[in-house]
Amino acid sequence: MTVIWDYAKRLWLICGVVEGFRVEWTAVSGGEVHYQVQTGDLSEAQLTGLTPFASYSISIAAVNKEGQVVGTYSQPLTIKTNEDIPGPVEIVLISSLVQIGITWSKPARPNGIITDYEVSYGQKNSSRLTSANTGLLTNFSVRVKLGAEFTFTVRAFTRAGPGEPTTVAVSTLTKPPIVENVVVVSLNESSTNVSWRALDVPFLPVSYTVVYSPVSQPPMEENNESAVVFPPPATSGVITGLVALTTYQIQVFATVTVDGAEIAGEKSNLVYFVNEYSPSSQANPPSLSIVVILLTVVVVLCGIAVLAILVMLLYRKKKKQRSSYYVTPTYEEQHYVLNKGRQSDLLKHLWEQLDNKSMIYSTHQLRLSTALGHGVTGQVYKAYIKASWERTCCSQNGKCTLLNV
Predict the structure, then answer these.
(1) Which stretches are transmembrane (predicted)?
(2) Which positions ≥6 away from 5 have C-beta within 8 Å?
(3) How far apart are CA 101 and CA 125, in angstroms?
(4) Taken in order 307, 308, 309, 310, is the CA torsion positive or negative?
């Protein structure tokens, strides 16, 4: 780009003040500031390294002998560079058995406004090429023969002309590729589900055939194999008529139809499986298992509650036993004390008052113990009881026994 400024600036040179001019420019979109100094009587500069079809801001100022700016810069001037031929495109191939398709992206360096694209193609190592203009479309496909080898060249156009070409080579397949990721899952004692990953065969529908047979010693003949065909776009299917607890081998292959003829691909790797499905294994579905777990939890909680009640009752019983200092005297013991001894009427009265708070041991002696300080007994009753029994209570051998009450 050539920049020219006002020639009247030459008057400053005569006065010896101005030695030259400094031209600065930077991209409007942002970036580094560039400059160029022109000395002497020059009033124009050639700017290089600019990006095609880009806007720049340009300013000019006078400089002295030391290179320092004299005065101020001129008002910025915005200029857009001209278009140039575009850069190359990036091609993505889509290959099939009888058709080749390509797509491409806009050039990373368009250098202008893209007006159209041109595609040239032909068989490999052939000088005869066919060209097609796709306009602004970025995809193209052509029908070819099986196993053919072709080259494709794509280039973009701007008003400056055609851009850099991009060429790729591609070969069509002769048959569908091998099926992968075959998975077998038993459904019941006589059927199983087979799934696989779908093949990427553009422009053609693909059907899949599952071949299976039981494994035996020696291996079974091929005419004993069974096959099930699943139409497109199936990626799984169910095979039936299996025998429970039997080992089977399974393979899957793809088939396409080209001009009325079926073309089959190679079989997948062998997959072995045992039809181990058992009805008993499905007797308790997940919902019943949850119910069983809940019932178990309830039973455990009830058992804990019953155990807690039993422990509480046992505790209360032991507490009651600890709170009773004495056991209740038997009828015979009370009768002996009241009728056979020589106790006073006061002792009878006290006995009735004490009720079950007394205990009598009748083993060669009679002994009465009273809970002291409880109810209406008090110290007075204690004294009466002690005095009366010291006088009247005797053992069977005639000796008197003092009571510690």
Answers:
(1) 288-315
(2) 21, 43, 44, 60, 74
(3) 20
(4) positive
Count of beta carbons in the 10 Å neighbourhood of residue 214: 15
Length of the chain: 405
> Which of the residue ranges 114-123, 301-310, 386-395 would you say has the lowest mean pLDDT?
386-395
- Please write down the long-range contacts of 380-388, taking CB distance under 8 Å and 24 or more positions apart: 381/350, 381/353, 381/354, 384/346, 384/347, 384/350, 385/347, 385/350, 388/343, 388/344, 388/346, 388/347
123 within 8 A of 148, measured Cβ to Cβ: yes
Per-residue pLDDT, averaged over 282-289, amounts to 54
| Bridge partner residues of 191 (DSSP) | 188
Q: What is the CA radius of gyration of the chain?
A: 57
Residue labelled with tokens 């075959």 = 182
Burial of 384 (0-12, 13-18, 19+ CB in 10 A): middle
Condensed to tens digits (0 to 9), the pLDDT of residues 68-83 reads 888 788 889 899 999 9
Worst-scoring range by mean pLDDT, 12-26, 127-141, 191-205, 315-329? 315-329
> Dihedral of CA 225/229/233/239: which sign?
negative
Calculate ∠ Cα 139-144-148, nearest 5°.
110
How far apart CA 251 and CA 279 sit, in angstroms, is: 27
Cβ contacts of residue 350 below 8 Å, gap of 6+?
Answer: 377, 381, 384, 385
Question: How far is CA 159 from its chain centroid?
Answer: 52
Q: For 82-128, what is each residue's pLDDT tens digit?
A: 999 999 999 988 777 788 889 999 999 999 999 999 999 998 888 88
Q: pLDDT tens-digit profile of 315-324?
A: 887 766 655 4
Of 271, 275, 250, residue with least CA distance to 189: 275
Residue 281 reports pLDDT greater than 50: no
Residues 70 and 64: beta-carbon distance below 8 Å: yes
Residue 317, H or E segment: helix 286-323
**Three-state SS sequence of 195-209:** ECCCCCCCCCCCEEE
- CB 226, CB 211: distance < 8 Å: yes
DSSP letters spanning 137-158: --EEEEE--TT-EEEEEEEEEE
Residue 81 in tokens: 């560079």
